[in-house]
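## retry 2 of 3
previous attempt timed out at serialization; input unchanged, resubmitting
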Amino acid sequence: MSKIKLGILGGGEDSLIGILHRVAASMFDRYEIVGGVFDIEHARSLSFGEKLQLDSKRIYRDLDHLIKEEAQLPENERMQVISVLTPNFLHFPMAKQLLENGYNVICEKPLTTTYEEAKILQKTQEKSGSIFGVTYTYTGYPMVRQMKTMISNGEIGEIQKVDVQYYQGWINPLIHDKEKRSNTWRLDPEKSGISCCIGDIGTHAFNMAEYVTGMRISSILADLNYLYEDNPMDIDGTVLLRFSEKVKGVIRASQIATGEENNFTVKIYGNKGALKWEQENPNYLYLLKEDQPLQVLKPGHSYNSDFSLEGTKLPPGHPEGIFDSMGNIYLGIANAIEKNTKFEGAFPPLAEGLRGMSFIEKTVASHKKGNVWIKMNDK
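## retry succeeded, writing output
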């Protein structure tokens, strides 16, 4: 079977996210990285492409050059899908141009810097018919997919409470230094959009809450923290959630949780039981039921769903992690490109990125209006 030809925008020498995507694309032997634009400076991009042992002729100066030169190649040699791994403000123009030229797209989150841009992107994708995946990475974990399946099957009953926490501490050393916080791109609205914490990690929590429960959040109330008056971007926040009048929840997100690394925890409580999952210990899914011992489910066992097992690459007892999670998303996109989609929720589509942008804007609006409830219904 011939491999899907993949191009990459961004994700160069010093990019953590670039490594994650390249490793993910190599899993399952479904993609071949053939070129791209890895850095804004062409010399650095060329140097990095050489380290990846790519043909220097396909390390392009910019996106315009890439589109022009790829069109000159025989159709069976051209890039079929391109990953956009650039800072947030470049997601929209790059993804839009790629869709308009017939490419399938894989895009980092947040999808764009505004909800209006995201709506334009959705219309562009609908017109193009291209596959578009947004890398809400954590939905690729086998035990997250097991959680989704168990909730869908009614194993914890009717959902009553949703509690999602995403705590990091990486901004803490920067935020208290005026010069450092002024020179960090994630705290620059021109490059990052209107939100830092909610836009970066709160959107993961929002997506996860809707992904595993299969429900849509109907309204939110937010309280954000900026810490310093000259800092225009939130770095901490709490968001109350209403799925319905009887189903409530909370998202707690922070980048100033001192000492925390990547503490993403998901807890779903039903009237017959509960499920808990922690990103830092991703191979354990905890099932709680009244008057029964705590159960611990792990990946790779036959008791798991087909959806969970499809994304499990190692025998039981062998840890799998975030590279595997992203790899499972790339697998889902590969299946879609080859019209071989197997499972509902195999990758986050553009529509989930659109919902994420709506959540970011409504969260900021709720805070600025005095911490009021705002409906999540899309415009």
